[in-house]
Amino acid sequence: MNWDLLLFLKAWVRSPRKVGAVIPSSPILAKAMAKQVELKPGQLVVELGAGTGAVTRALVERGIRPEDLIVIEMDPVFCSRLRQRFPQLRILNIDATRLEPVLRRHHIDRVDTIVSSLPLLSLDRKSQSAILRQSFQLLGGHGTFIQYTYGVGSPIRSRFYRGLGLSGQRLSQIWRNMPPATIWRYRHK
Ligand SMILES: C[S@@+](CC[C@H](N)C(=O)[O-])C[C@H]1O[C@@H](n2cnc3c(N)ncnc32)[C@H](O)[C@@H]1O
Prior knowledge:
Blueprint: H1 3-14, H2 16-19, H3 27-35, E1 45-48, H4 54-62, E2 69-72, H5 76-85, E3 90-92, H6 99-105, E4 113-116, H7 125-139, E5 144-149, H8 158-163, E6 166-174, E7 181-188
Parallel strand pairs: 1-2, 1-4, 2-3, 4-5
Antiparallel strand pairs: 5-7, 6-7
S-adenosylmethionine binds near residues 25, 51 and 74.
């Protein structure tokens, strides 16, 4: 029995729009996401919507140090699983719409990279916009936001990211994922 799959299915039945997928990300997609993170000692990485931890594992295997990684997940069941699996990491059981004030309480006001598995396209507009505004605020002029999508176009509306002075780039298509996914990167021009 694949417990992650079962956990994921149960979460999807409880809240399909928030989970956004029926099965966890494949190791290939997770690795491709982690590969986009530049490895620089001391640079802070935040993962949004970690689920059962496929991308978290890839980030750890990529060499991001535990003290340089913060994991955000709103589902408490996923969070307990993540804490069992990655006891060395800071895992915060919060809604990403509260990202900035929560990180500030941890004395963090700058982040270098955000790696997101959030189902942006199925979140309501208000939550989506709150998460993205706070993310880009934390990333400042130098940071990078990485997101995958199952859709054909950008998971962030071009009017939104261009309005913030950012450019969006489609990086790669991962066929070996269910469903196939595309990785996008957003950063200042
Ligand atoms: C597509 S799943 C993540 C898949 C993950 N890469 C994996 O392999 O397990 C999206 C995740 O985002 C979480 N999520 C959705 N909305 C959220 C929010 N506003 N704040 C934090 N987490 C959220 C869901 O609970 C879910 O675990």
